[in-house]
Amino acid sequence: MTLAMLINGQASNQIPADDRGFQYGDGLFETALLAKGQVRFLDDHLRRLATGCSRLGIAAPDERTLRDEIAQVTKGSERGVLKIIVTRGSGGRGYRPGSAASNTRVVALHPLNHVSQGALRLRWCEIRLGRNARLAGIKHLNRLEHVLAQSEWSDGEADEGLMLDTEGELVCATAGNVFAVRDGALITPDLRFCGVQGVMRAQVLKAAARLGLPVTEEPLWPDDLQAASEIFITNAVRGIRSVAALDSLQWSETGVAERLAAALSLSDT
Amino acid sequence: MTLAMLINGQASNQIPADDRGFQYGDGLFETALLAKGQVRFLDDHLRRLATGCSRLGIAAPDERTLRDEIAQVTKGSERGVLKIIVTRGSGGRGYRPGSAASNTRVVALHPLNHVSQGALRLRWCEIRLGRNARLAGIKHLNRLEHVLAQSEWSDGEADEGLMLDTEGELVCATAGNVFAVRDGALITPDLRFCGVQGVMRAQVLKAAARLGLPVTEEPLWPDDLQAASEIFITNAVRGIRSVAALDSLQWSETGVAERLAAALSLSDT
Q: Rounded to an integer, what is the distance from CA B37 to the centroid of its chain?
């Protein structure tokens, strides 16, 4: 369901079938929370989108135009999920992009689905993430691995799944980044080979620094979670979510997650 | 440019922006040659498409419907490129597919671009292919790596690029499979981690068996090409193309490629 959608500035819900986003996943997206009529961390989302465009060689949309379109689709709404998609547009011959500096912008507001409260029950996903440093960090449209990951279980069985890369390193949740607390310090995967540099992840890293919490971004392996006193998942829309269980492992501590959420005023939104 | 397009059986060139093909690259495609009014190797293309649907858990389109739509878009045309896209359709919540067995079918005929004649000059692509056995072989819509590969050079510099995976194994050309001839035997990468099981590749493997040419599918590394007496690239639309040069390496033999092309009657189309 969509509350409002603009495609290249026009009210529409259709894109040309020759759009390279549809043909090859040749584009990027952002998903942000609208709360109290404001898009949370909008500057961060727009910055990551611009970084992604630069990495893929896609003409970045004009920021003022994009902000204006975001204001149009969110006008009069207090709460929802803002989704932005930018693709390389139509054209080119086969895989090869055309020389024209074109793109397609989709700016849409969706209702915020009910989100369960309480600490999350996690599972391990069977599908792995392929490693490719060239695509790591950005929120591109090639998301089959995440789609297949979320296909592995039904709602009742777990709240989220953790994903490993093909070498067995821990990367992320299917729709979020993962943090572990060990000896009072925060650790999160460094995402050098795959995964998305989440907007909430970046906010958590900055808030931790302000709070004087030691933080490291480093390679993490499944066994590292056994030594963790606390685990949480971050997502731009859902905020910071404590983890209660991962298969047979259990955690009851939520203090670091709560301090970070308070520092980021997440409950105010 | 498109000569004819059917979307779910209706003449159209627009798809809903919430289609999962556009949102996540959640789908598959086929590109086939129309020659003398017939789609070359159509059975093979439809079989690979069905295999891909099965691998991704997408409801495969009814084969009779698809064949009927192909007949409609190719009617009255002698020559062109047939492109079929099948996605998981709209719906689901975020990455997670909905439970409905829906899909989106796009069946389109495009003009056949002019293809240069003569042996190909190849280059090495800088971007690598990520390894993920779960997605290997099928022709899914997550093709950013190929798009970025073809962005690395302009038309005049080379005819095609060879791609390695992140571990340095040779996988494919940006739009085709690669074969080497060594001591009279054919060798082609086994594609166990990435790459597409090309329709022309499969035809070449079968034709080689009929001709009594030894064939192995095995891991290949860049150095293996130095020992090759002949190299060729296969692609469903362009057929079998001999390679003349790869950076400073040069080949003049084209005999095996020509025998295979003759066995497959490729020049008749």
A: 21
